[in-house]
Protein 1
Amino acid sequence: MDPIACTNIVVKLGTSTLTAGTSSLSPARMVELVRQMAELHNQGCKVVLVSSGAIAAGRERLAFPSLPKDIPAKQMLAAVGQPRLMALYEQLFDIYKLTVAQVLLTRTDLADRRRYLNSRNTLSALLSQRVIPIVNENDTVATEEIRVGDNDNLSALVANLIEADLLVILTDQPGLFTTDPRTDPLAELIHDIVSPSIPQSVWEAVGTTAGKLGTGGMLTKLQAADLARRSGTTVVIAAGNEENVLTRLAMGEKLGTRFSPLATTLEGRKRYILAGGNHLPGILVVDAGAAKALRKGSSLLPVGVKRVTGEFDCGDTVKVVDSSGSEIARGLVNYSAMDLARIAGKQSREIEAILGGEYDDEVIHRNNLVLI
């Protein structure tokens, strides 16, 4: 395996990893994993942690003998356990003088485009300040998610959100096997999955059985890996108790089961932008100077916008055309049609005075623009 460039990394920790296979959170296991994340952080990586364990922390505090099956009871345990889990993380990361932030999400937060952008901007702001976001499914309000261990799939969505280079899903198994290693002594570890479609035999091997300590299982991890790699992220499922597993993976060592990305992160974003076809909600007419700058790879600034047509919101995909009506590009716009009409033709420094708040300097950032 080639070494992973140390840029954006998402680490997903399951309950079985955080408890070291017991019924309670394991501070010793957690501090070891925190140490590795701190090392990656100090090497310049932007690390986002997606952590399970809130329900386990609640069980421990209330002395629940086993994981309840009904959703309200799980939500109650999550409500009790979440602040305890975060307090422990804060203490452990503080050992390495690192600041953490709690981010609670549900899948619906990332399905709505505006909330998706808000979530992305929040994570970007935290990472720019060298803060480590700790993301968890909002179990106190989620329903179906809490039943299927959706922190696995949530980690894939977060990887897409920050355009991660690497997603590491740590569990109590060394990776994916050809059959269930708990029942078949001949089961073999699958080292690499590079085919566009995950073989049916692999889906059948993981089954649908959830873990005893958490709410997910290998099935949700496989689903998450398949989702993330389609967005351009390399994914590794590995054992959380493997010595220095995170730092070794970041250095390119071959551990666990590796899923090769099916596209670059840029290609994945371009596919999203182009997915709207010809039925887009808005058109931006730009002047000759802006058209020339766009073709050279620049962002679109409000000063270059001559006219705005259509109705659209922040985060929608719009067309960009020149004065003759020829399409130049498509991109994800940072303003609604109403706001953009007010700042069209203005300098970026005038935006705050016109709209009454701080906004992006760019109408469309070059990273969110596809030339036609």
Protein 2
Amino acid sequence: MSQRVELGCMGHLSVSADCRWSRHTRVGDHRISSVGNYYPGHSTERVTIGRDRYFQTMVFPLKPDAEGEDAEDCGCGVVADWCEIDSDGYQTAGEAQAGHEKMVEKYM
């Protein structure tokens, strides 16, 4: 079984700083990142991310530790390829929370 590490930083999405909800977990050589509740800039209106969804989870492969340093030194690893290998979308934070846990279990 792979080691599970919960991380405090955002794990993907270039506009994630404007997301008000996130989860980020490293499982072995995989980054599992969930974001949502996107309010761009100083907007008071929530905007979808992806296609007709307010939350999403994506999984990215990581380089083996020997292939490079973790640039942030936070334990999240270095992404080998930003093309996700798995993903799902949700409408609510509860669905996103459950979906994130489902992805973590899948990659454990």
